[in-house]
Amino acid sequence: MLLKFTKMHGAGNDFVVVDLISQRCRLRSRDIRLLADRHFGVGCDQVLVVEPPGRPEVDFRYRIYNADGSEAEQCGNGARCFARFVRDKQLTSKRIIRVETAGGIIELRVRDKQQVEVDMGAPEFEPERIPLRAATRAASYTVALDGRELELGALSMGNPHAILRVEDVAQAAVDSLGPALERHPDFPQRVNVGFMEVVSEREIRLRVFERGAGETLACGTGACAAVVYGISRGWLQGVVTVHLPGGKLEIAWAGAGHPVVMTGPTAVVFEGSIRI
Ligand SMILES: N[C@H](CCC[C@H](N)C(=O)O)C(=O)O
């Protein structure tokens, strides 16, 4: 069949967005990998699928697939693009949109045509909720890798994140440590790996090696996880500007039990269709 899609990005984290409300189609893992393939397909970090609501308290269901075909529980940059997509396609005229994902319900607030604010829900810290193989919850964990011990933060934003503090993101060993930690046995469902440089109490630089996609130009849940870890360690406070290679995000967190609120850009690149 010929599948219509919209190519979008949020701070350079790019997506193929597919409306499966107006198009009746079942996407198999190999279709996802084709859509995401930058040579044989369209090319993206994640494929976002718009589905009808499965419960009365939400407006849509939103499924997220990494380029390797694996399904993820949450995607922050994708959530903002999702909000813009469903309004652009007249699937809703709401400016406050509630969406069910595999990681829980999130609320999208369309600020103006480009900027969207997302209530990402509260972070989870219990090891079994991340998941992380650790005896008890801790402010940071030590993970053994290639004969070294690495200190890192670990938490869930619906999806799992590990965060390492580094002196300079430009010098960070993202290409080697990223894949090694992504698949480290301490993270039974793999993990997204953030490398955070603290610029000031309200500003960080961040690079993220994403589970199932590799290093991306931005990671919304990764930005949330890094700020939560930085605030928890006393390095950051309040609303934090996160500078990523593809752009910047504003992340706010008022502490334990409170939701993380992310604000950032959205962009439509092109519309297309592909035979699958
Ligand atoms: N790779 C992530 C999903 C995409 C998250 C990221 N693109 C974001 O903006 O949050 C995972 O497997 O949990």
TrEMBL record:
Record GO cellular component, one term: cytosol
Listed InterPro entries: DAP_epimerase_AS, DAP_epimerase_DapF
Molecular-function annotations in GO: diaminopimelate epimerase activity
Site (Could be important to modulate the pK values of the two catalytic cysteine residues): H161, E210
Keyword entries, A-Z: Amino-acid biosynthesis, Cytoplasm, Isomerase, Lysine biosynthesis
GO BP term (any one): lysine biosynthetic process via diaminopimelate
UniProt site (Important for dimerization): F270
Pathway: Amino-acid biosynthesis; L-lysine biosynthesis via DAP pathway; DL-2,6-diaminopimelate from LL-2,6-diaminopimelate: step 1/1
Pfam families: DAP_epimerase (PF01678)
Main location: cytoplasm
EC annotation from Swiss-Prot or TrEMBL: 5.1.1.7
Active site feature: C75 (proton donor), C75, C219 (proton acceptor)
Reactions this protein catalyses: (2S,6S)-2,6-diaminopimelate = meso-2,6-diaminopimelate
Location in or out of the cell: Cytoplasm
Residues annotated for substrate binding in this entry: N13, Q46, N66, G76, N77, N159, N192, E210, R211, G220, T221
Function: Catalyzes the stereoinversion of LL-2,6-diaminopimelate (L,L-DAP) to meso-diaminopimelate (meso-DAP), a precursor of L-lysine and an essential component of the bacterial peptidoglycan.
Family per record: Belongs to the diaminopimelate epimerase family.
Classification via PANTHER family: DIAMINOPIMELATE EPIMERASE, DIAMINOPIMELATE EPIMERASE, CHLOROPLASTIC
Quaternary structure and interacting proteins, as annotated: Homodimer.
Name of the molecule in the record: Diaminopimelate epimerase
Gene: dapF
